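Late entry, evening session. Most of the bench is empty. Finally got around to the prediction I had been postponing all week. Sequence below, unchanged from the version circulated by S.P.
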Amino acid sequence: MFAGPLPDFELDSALDDPEELFVEWLESAIAAGVPEPHAMSLATVDAGGQPSSRVLVLKDLTAAGWQFATGRTTRKGRELRATQVAALNFYWQQLGRQVRVAGTVIELTAEESAADFRARPGWSEGAPIDPDWQLYAIRATEVEFWQADRDRHHRRLIYRRAADGWDQHRP
């Protein structure tokens, strides 16, 4: 299942902030040559609770949260508007790592959405901005890090948002 060596994940020395740990893991995936390390699965639910998922690209991680974009009138756009919750999953097979992010969804500003649209490949100066394009952020309430182990002693660390930061849990 995992061809190369797997990195260590020492739970006792894990960073206190899951966003910082995520950036560290993402940079490790980039350095290891993982193809499309910014690719993520976005899971949404409709108003009736029916789930759906698809693969998107992480645009950025800022104080607003994990950012991605789509059209407001797409299925995922309608589901995000209806429930305002979503989950992301990053999987870096070569490292035996995955990160799950769940939380509330916010729409970023029209200016931020337009800037994101202009940054897309193929957009040319002077072309109109799609008014349906929306940049979203997930404000995480829970972030789970999973590290595979060849002996199947996989390690997981879950961060849950607390009033004063994050609490860590080891399932």
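Two things to note before I forget:
The mean pLDDT is 94.
The longest strand covers residues 133-147.
Will write this up properly tomorrow.
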